[in-house]
Design a protein that fits this description.
This protein is 53% helix and 0% strand. α2 packs across α3. The longest helix is centred in the C-terminal third of the chain and has 34 residues. The radius of gyration is 23 Å and the shape is extended. The mean pLDDT is 77.
Length: 156
């Protein structure tokens, strides 16, 4: 399993079980639940079954730009932004008649470029957070004492 994760550059991370706010997947679920709730509970809703609305909600999430990276999940997955009916009305889409090898090279190049953008955005976000959490000499900090004096004293 470790070789599979390393080969596809997948980092496995763990979150605290009783603190779902720290888990980014929980934030995505919260967003999708809110969209489904709006789609199903509106008085003029076309569908009253959440399973019917799910593909539309998924597309809505996928085409939305992630604020930190300025890249959408759709673009990260496919290498281009989705087309809308308005895009089709603007004019014919140019056919890019490429060989399979050229298409593969182009796609690989796009994914590497997107990976670089996301990595830079993550580093920038880490740098912003680091400023807030680095302690300076003289700052008040919590200290954990493994062996408390007795059960009436806090370990912190």
């Amino acid at each position: 399993m470790q070789t599979f994760l390393k080969q596809f550059k997948i980092r496995c991370g763990y979150s605290i079980p009783y603190h779902p706010q720290s888990n980014p997947v929980e934030r995505v679920h919260r967003y999708i639940n809110a969209l489904l709730r709006v789609a199903v509970s509106r008085s003029d809703a076309v569908h009253d079954d959440w399973a019917v609305c799910l593909p539309y909600v998924e597309f809505s999430y996928d085409e939305k730009f992630i604020p930190g990276t300025k890249v959408s999940p759709f673009m990260l997955h496919n290498g281009y932004q989705p087309l809308y009916p308005e895009d089709l009305a603007k004019g014919p889409i140019k056919c890019q008649n490429k060989t399979y090898q050229k298409k593969l090279e182009f796609t690989t190049e796009m994914f590497e470029h997107m990976e670089k953008i996301v990595r830079e955005a993550n580093e920038e976000a880490k740098a912003k957070l680091k400023v807030n959490y680095d302690a300076q000499v003289g700052d008040s900090v919590l200290h954990y004492c493994e062996a408390g004096l007795d059960k009436l004293h806090f370990k912190w």
